[in-house]
Design goal:
Chain B: Keywords: Dioxygenase, Oxidoreductase. By secondary structure, chain A is mainly β. Helix content of chain A is 5%, strand content 23%. Chain A starts with 29 loop residues before the first helix and ends in a 15-residue tail after the last strand. Chain B contains 2 helices and 12 strands; from the N terminus they run αββββββββαββββ. Classes of the chains: A mainly beta (246), B mainly beta (199). Chains A and B meet through α1, β1, α2, β3 and β9 of A and α1, β5, β7, β8 and α2 of B. The complex binds fe (iii) ion.
Chain lengths: 246, 199
Amino acid sequence: MSDRIQDRGPLIPRNRAAHPPAYDIDYKTSVPRSPRWSLLSLESGPSEETGPTFGHEILGEWDNNLIMNWTRGKAPAVGERILVHGRVLDENARPVPHTLVEIWQANAGGRYRHKKDTYFAPLDPNFGGCGRTITDENGYYEFLTIRPGAYPWPNRGNDWRPMHIHFSIFGHAFGQRLISQMYFEGDPLIYRCPIAATIKDRGQLDTLVAPLDMAKARPMDFLAYKFDIVLRGRRQTMFENKLEGM
Amino acid sequence: MVQKLDTLIETPSQTAGPYVHIGCMPTYAGNAGAYDLEIGESPIADGAQGEVIEITGEVIDGTGWALRDAMMESWQPDAAGKFPGQAGADPKVSGYCRFAADSETGKFTLRTVKPGAVQARSGAMQAPHISVWVVARGINIGLQTRIYFEDEDNSTDPLLNRIEQQNRVQTLIAKKTAEGKYTFNIVLQGDNETVFLDI
Ligand SMILES: [Fe+3]
């Protein structure tokens, strides 16, 4: 368990309006998979305020380089080379250091390397589609990858996923666990996508759209996109007189 | 106008989608070797103290169908109620596991040690439980719940006692089927819908 001040105190209750509702008739799979009864709300305790931690010993040399990691550096993946970078912060605007960030995505043609993906776009023999890294002491992370392709999916008659990268973030507490998706600035499919549209607040949806970041792009090599992530924070006051777990 | 708060809003959740395993459980996705070491393969190592148990079940949708693509994560303390990192915690217990519904049958299995009781911030003792987080295609934000055990004293647990409809408490309690074996289904919707948590 961490001794950082920011890792003490109860988690700030989740602002559910910041998130999509469980049930959304336009995202058809959510219809039978959404609870009907209300969630049971309680103040967090040790089960939610602690969580797994991962050190650099789990990481392989190529884990945050999706262009090269599937072949362990032997041959690069096909596609437009991009750097995806940003910071993991909490609701109190503090960096979340030393936390595991995992991503997965389709290849440049919009095909996933998954035994269940049957889309006829070809697999790239040099692209696996997953990567992971651990944020530094300032909460900063970066991945080198290729721009994923848009792909069609069975929902309404002609639904397409915009270009996106799936993100999984741990934070320092099991109650901070979050999975989301990053979209790309300028993609016209974002505002036609029923999954993006499960987020009802346009400002919140826009926080998933990463801007092109020419200051981070490397000439003659890769473009860059910046994607910051905000996890739940913990309540801290000078009057918090109960110790953790007491 | 008023002053601006210097707080941020949490990044909105999006569904983990059908291919969550690519990123989280590459071997399950058919991509063994994507990482040298996958995380969460087991919450315990050989020699963990306490009773080793196996919890099996299904994640069931509102039509009664077991999901084939659900992924779960569990988090728990060791047999003495200490979480990893706490002083005196069992070094053989990582407390964290990733597991998935079988892509053919929909069945999942969690093999772990039975957790000990943990004190809540209020001072009350919580009955032994495992925290579970469920994601899948069609689940827009990960669902939190807990696994309690029918052969433990759950009568004074603060969370279970907060459930007004006491007939729903049984949705959080694993049923013992044999020595060290339990079943626990997660029902997303409909009759016997699991109590999901906002903690
Ligand atoms: Fe996707």
